[in-house]
Design a protein that fits this description.
The structure holds 2 protein chains of 2 kinds. By secondary structure, chain A is mainly β. Chain A has no helices and 11 strands. In chain A, a hairpin with a 4-residue loop joins strand 9 and strand 10. The chains are: A mainly beta, B mainly beta. Chains A and B meet through strand 4, strand 5 and strand 10 of A and strand 5, strand 9 and strand 10 of B.
């Protein structure tokens, strides 16, 4: 069964600090991996998408990495801001099929 | 102003009543999706539609029904047969390109059934 596991489940960091969120998956065949940001009570918004051949992609202060061999991805947030407080969801597409969603990591940036 | 709209944002119903959640998009996307989100769980697919007048069941379709009479609209009905309907419901759309087509999400509807 396809699975996407995210860690940690939740995280609290001080404003201005960096953090890294992890995503491990067992989806096969792999098509692409997305990271979404979801503010409380809102719909998810895409941050990055990576295919098999890409191992790093940045979007402002967000940098995602992908290791397709070990089936791991990370999302690094640099110089965190209060507005970064949200749930971050890793989503993996299997071939031409539907998506498998992780449960998300809840990030709280504290002043 | 392009995007996906869902209405209402909050919805309250009594147990035993059917309720319909609205989803409209003006992105000219072919594919539309309905997801359910519960605390501590990943999004779960209820129904999806790749083209007008056609839709398929997702992983948790029991107790739900949909229609796709127009490209822009994909309403979801939560029936009285759904055992635990209280949840946050998200609608999404995509270009339908299954290889890289990104899904754009609406703002969601929080349904509470008592």
């Amino acid at each position: 069964k396809n699975q996407v596991e995210q860690s940690p489940q939740s995280l609290i960091i001080l404003e201005g600090k960096n953090c890294t969120l992890q995503c491990n998956y067992t989806v096969s065949p792999f098509s692409n991996l997305r990271w979404y940001k979801q503010d409380t009570g809102r719909g998810p918004v895409s941050l990055t998408i990576m295919t098999f051949s890409e191992n790093t992609k940045s979007n402002g202060r967000y940098t995602a990495t992908l290791d397709a061999d070990t089936k791991q991805s990370s999302l690094h947030i640099t110089a965190s801001q209060l507005s970064d407080s949200a749930s971050y969801i890793c989503v993996v597409r299997e071939g031409y099929s539907t998506l498998t969603f992780g449960k998300g990591t809840m990030l709280l940036v504290s002043p | 102003d392009g995007g996906i709209t869902q209405s209402p944002k909050y919805l309250f119903r009594k147990e035993g009543q059917n309720v319909t959640l609205s989803c409209e998009q003006n992105l000219n996307h072919d594919a539309m999706y309905w997801y359910r989100q519960d605390p501590g769980q990943g999004l779960r697919l209820i129904y999806y539609s790749q083209i007008v007048n056609d839709f398929q069941k997702g992983d948790i379709a029991e107790g739900y029904s949909v229609s796709r009479e127009k490209k822009e609209s994909f309403p979801l009905t939560v029936t009285s047969a759904q055992k635990n309907p209280t949840a946050f419901y998200l609608c999404a759309s995509s270009t339908g390109r299954l290889d890289v087509g990104e899904q754009y999400f609406g703002p969601g509807t929080r349904l509470t059934v008592t």
